[in-house]
Each structure stands twice: as C-alpha cells, then as structure tokens.
From TrEMBL:
PROSITE patterns: UBC_2. InterPro entries: UBC (IPR000608), UBQ-conjugating_enzyme/RWD (IPR016135). Gene3D superfamilies: Ubiquitin Conjugating Enzyme. This is UBC core domain-containing protein. It comes from the Eukaryota. The lineage of its organism: Eukaryota, Sar, Stramenopiles, Ochrophyta, Dictyochophyceae. Residues 3-135 form the UBC core domain. It comes from Octactis speculum.
Length: 135
C-alpha cells in the first residue's frame, strides 16, 4: 500500500497537470503538509439539467486515507441520488464506482461524480437554482 501522503501528492500532481476538463481540485491551504482539506469543482454534464453549472465541493481526507475514503460535500445545492439533503456524497451510492484502497484516487472519484450526472435517474431530478448553497 502506498503511504497516505505519497498517494495524495500523486493526486495533487494529477490535478495540477490537468486531465479531465470537467474536474479540478487543489489544497485549501497550500501550506497543509498533511494534505487534509481540498477544494474541488465539477462542470455539469452537457445535455443534462446540470449543464452550464460549476459545482463546488469540499474534500476531507481523513488520517487513515486511503483505507477510509475521503469525505466529500457539495457547496452548491444539487439533486443526485448519491448526495443527501446536506450535500454530503455517499460514495457507495455512486454508480459504477467502488472505493478501493489500492486503486481509487481523488481524480477518479471526481470523474465518477461527473459521470453520475449523466445517469438517467439523476437526469430526471429537478435541480435547485444556481445560487442555492448548503448552509
């Protein structure tokens, strides 16, 4: 198993190099040597009720990461099957994704969330106004 900080440094490098244009992320505090708290964004999927929206998220990587998955919360209100009424993401409810200690990464997780916006069950859901945020 890759040590926690090495795995998170790899994720940070992946985000800094770019990759999937729908997602981005970085440390909330660039001086955070433990790589605990992150901010992220996902661009809504075209052709869905999520299109033309940029969703902000916070990511908390616990001390036992990657043995335990990160805690993810949307800042903008969103209706998706894997997001509760407080904006918390249930990683186990994301279609076609399972957190695996050895292979899961923050970029893969955000890509899975972006892909989830295309899921037919989520496309049917009415979305809140752009300006609504979780308190």
């Amino acid at each position: 198993v890759v040590p926690r900080n090495f795995k998170l440094l790899e994720d940070l490098e992946t985000f800094e190099k770019g990759g999937d244009p729908r997602i981005s992320a970085g440390l909330k505090d660039p001086c955070d040597l433990l790589l605990i708290d992150w901010h992220a964004s996902i661009i809504g999927a075209p052709g869905t009720p999520f299109q033309n929206r940029i969703y902000s998220l916070s990511i908390h990587c616990p001390p036992n990461y990657p043995m335990s998955p990160p805690i993810i919360r949307f800042s903008n209100k969103i209706n998706m099957r894997c997001v509760d009424q407080r904006g918390m993401v249930s990683i186990s409810s994301i279609s076609n994704f399972q957190w695996q200690t050895a292979t899961s990464t923050l970029p893969r997780l955000l890509i899975a969330l972006a892909d989830e916006m295309k899921n037919a069950n989520n496309r049917r859901l009415t979305q809140p106004n752009d300006s609504e945020i979780y308190s």
